[in-house]
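tokens incoming
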């Protein structure tokens, strides 16, 4: 009896697609991954990864013999029955999800009853129904991804749940997809397609709501003399609330939360329902990024001619993703106020340089701080916790740091000679600095 595992096809080898392909190969499946960008396919075929994700390089190298990268849709269709669609669905000008890449893929598929379209891309509820209506012979399964950048490999290999949505007539296809994930041990949630699509959007919208809520609490804490760290700790011990996503900072970013929250708001709006809560979540997040400017002005006065260092540029550590990164807003606002901006990120510097051409890029944290009038910690890279802050204080024109992630120890920074200000720190503490 053959023990060879079923081949898997992946359409789109961006962040989600590449992690999906590498992890299925690690599980022993032959994987054929197709992308329309020939340069990306050529790089991956040479063993050169195109994104930064911990553990991904090792998986790709270890499973190189099981992985085939191609630009040929015919080769993909010939080699695999289960086709995981992992293409981008960015927001349009209206805020709705742009499904043009999804539609392009669907048009190339064969509605022959032999292939199964497994939708990994985040799409609005109703997308699966629309596709099935247009291509009634196509088997369709919704299997949204719940991977976090920076821990995507771990999340894939140890899922807390796997959501599989299928409607009447596609039960066999759903069982085939579920069989791929059964070795991972996570709970498999079987539901209909529309509910599976909504689970993804609702999950991200809820997490974004927690972030905006604790940031609002942090702002109130600053006014009433409370410590948001203590508040969030006390809240998080309530099992109904939990500690996750209750860390105050300068707002969320990345490829998922901003896009999915807006997409859900627009999905509701297109039905005539006004999702008022999500409007507030979005507004709070945008304003939070700008509060840093007020903190700097409170210490420095006018920012005209001031040199401000941004420590970290990626939207979160352990990734080079700059999509919706807070650093983009901060850099633009600082320059709008007349400041000179210098920055350092250990991984995202090349991507950031293309997006921030007027920002001076440095080769290290200490280099970025040289001669700076202030610094803002934007991304909580571990190396910043290990920085020699006493040396940093000596290099700066004025040792002032706004910790946008409450990542550093304020007492340690003050002992090193810094004026330290975090998010949600009591006003009395800030005035002591």
């Amino acid at each position: 009896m053959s023990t060879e595992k079923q081949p898997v096809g992946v359409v789109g080898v961006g962040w989600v697609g590449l992690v999906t392909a590498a992890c299925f190969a690690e599980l022993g499946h032959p994987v054929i991954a197709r992308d329309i960008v020939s340069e990306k396919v050529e790089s991956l075929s040479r063993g050169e990864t195109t994104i930064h994700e911990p553990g991904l390089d090792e998986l790709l190298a270890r499973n190189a013999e099981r992985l085939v990268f191609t630009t040929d849709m015919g080769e993909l269709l010939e080699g695999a029955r289960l086709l995981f669609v992992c293409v981008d669905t960015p927001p349009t000008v209206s805020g709705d999800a742009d499904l043009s890449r999804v539609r392009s893929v669907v048009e190339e598929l064969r509605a022959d009853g032999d292939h199964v379209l497994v939708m990994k891309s985040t799409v609005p509820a109703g997308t699966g129904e629309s596709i099935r209506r247009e291509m009634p012979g196509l088997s369709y399964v919704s299997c949204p991804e719940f991977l976090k950048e920076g821990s995507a490999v771990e999340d894939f290999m140890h899922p807390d749940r796997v959501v599989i949505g299928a409607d009447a007539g596609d039960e066999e296809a759903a069982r085939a997809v579920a069989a791929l994930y059964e070795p991972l041990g996570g709970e498999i949630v079987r539901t209909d397609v529309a509910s599976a699509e909504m689970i993804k959007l609702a999950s991200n919208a809820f997490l974004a709501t927690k972030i905006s809520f604790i940031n609002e609490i942090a702002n109130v804490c600053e006014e009433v003399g409370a410590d948001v760290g203590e508040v969030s700790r006390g809240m998080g011990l309530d099992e109904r609330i939990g500690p996750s996503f209750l860390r105050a900072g300068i707002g969320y970013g990345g490829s998922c939360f901003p896009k999915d929250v807006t997409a859900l708001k627009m999905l509701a709006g297109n039905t005539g329902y006004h999702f008022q809560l999500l409007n507030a979540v979005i507004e709070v997040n945008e304003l939070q990024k700008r509060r840093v400017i007020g903190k700097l002005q409170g210490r420095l006065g006018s920012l005209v001619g001031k040199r401000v260092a941004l420590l970290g540029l990626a939207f979160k550590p352990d990734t080079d993703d700059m999509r919706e990164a807070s650093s983009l807003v901060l850099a633009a606002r600082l320059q709008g106020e007349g400041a000179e901006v210098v920055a350092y990120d250990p991984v995202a510097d090349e991507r950031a340089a293309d997006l921030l051409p007027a920002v001076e890029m440095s080769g290290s944290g200490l280099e970025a701080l040289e001669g700076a009038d202030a610094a803002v910690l934007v991304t909580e890279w571990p190396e910043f916790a290990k920085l020699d802050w006493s040396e940093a204080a000596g290099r700066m024109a004025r040792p002032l740091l706004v910790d946008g992630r409450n990542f550093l120890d304020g007492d340690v920074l003050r002992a090193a000679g810094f004026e330290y200000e975090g998010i949600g720190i009591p006003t009395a503490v800030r005035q002591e600095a």
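note: The longest helix spans residues 193-224.
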